[in-house]
Amino acid sequence: MKILSRIFDNRINAHNILTEISIGEYLEIANFISKNNPLQRKRLKSYSSIYNLLKEDIKIGCTIPPIVLALSNDIQENIDINNADEDIIKNYINHHKDKLIILDGLQRTHLLIDVDQDLHSENNINVLNKFHNHKLRFEIYLGIKKIGILYRMLTLNTGQSPMSVRHQIEILYSDYLDESISSEIKLLKEVDEPSPHEIGEYRFEYRFNDVIDGFTSYLLRDEASLDRRDLLEIIKSLENLAQENQNKDLFKSYLVTYNEFVKKIRELSGDWKFNDEQIRLSSKPFGDSVDKIFTKSPLMTGFGAAVGFLKDKHLINSFDDINQKITQIHLSNNDQSFLDELILTLDDISKTARKIGTSQRMYFYYFFRELFNSESDSCLSIDKSIESSFKKYRLNEL
After folding, report:
1. At CA 43, angle to CA 42 and CA 46, rounded to 5?
2. How high is the mean pLDDT of the chain?
3. For the chain, is the Cβ count within 10 Å smaller at the N or the C terminus?
């Protein structure tokens, strides 16, 4: 690896290092990324004729555009990039290659891996060595915040066939699947089966995909599906968030705060369980326990979008304000059956909803707005917020 230049990116406050590297050396890094971050293994389902042509060109030594990587500043060990010499930077990159993320060039990387596999199968050592020794350039962003990574991912991939915004957010925060956010929170992978009776050392379990939904709703200030958002609108949202994420991990702040809310609900509801013998519904209940209700995506997306709304309206400054409000949440009538009312309300919504998931997210968006908005008559009252948010939901549906 040879460092060619260093440029500071003022837009995302990160150093951009342009390097020259042999394909063989880059493949070691690429395979490491794929092995350690399965979310970066996704490739196009079928290559176009252009990609197939590029594949053949690569075999004979064509030059491809630079690949762009990033190394987040979440790493505990940081270096003074301005004053670090080339060897220090190279050692720093190699030492933390398990944390590298491909911002631009994922499909080109897959092509290089495919060519390498083809040449190995052909057992032509001379051609394989020539391929491995051929040079390519890659840029790497150092000292970059995760929001900056997402911003640069989107701008680099505009006009191509990029990964979805949601998938890119999954990539950025997938390290939390292996690292504990707190001693009482566990994130479950898609293949995991949550078992409320076997929580073990963790007291709260959430599916990683559902948390990603909720956090994305916070980032974009919208509980609705990402498909309904324009890319330019998303990028503009991230521009504002870059200033907010100066010193805190927003993903962690979002989840820890939401978890505090769930803890408060557990406290207020006691040992509540839904009893279908006492209450008749038109369909299956949204959930029959606190955990089965409040660990679902519609709750998390509604919470994220509502907190974002309150912040943009300058009604709160940060998640710290929400944490303070959570300690003051109460029941106006001191009745622990408030969750029965919530289930009945959601049942009413299901009777008329065109798209049940969309309607549920919208309802919970209004619910959290009412609950945490100091200008609302329902502020900090769970039972009042359940009722007033349903009225706002109905008005919006008309």
Report:
1. 145
2. 83
3. C
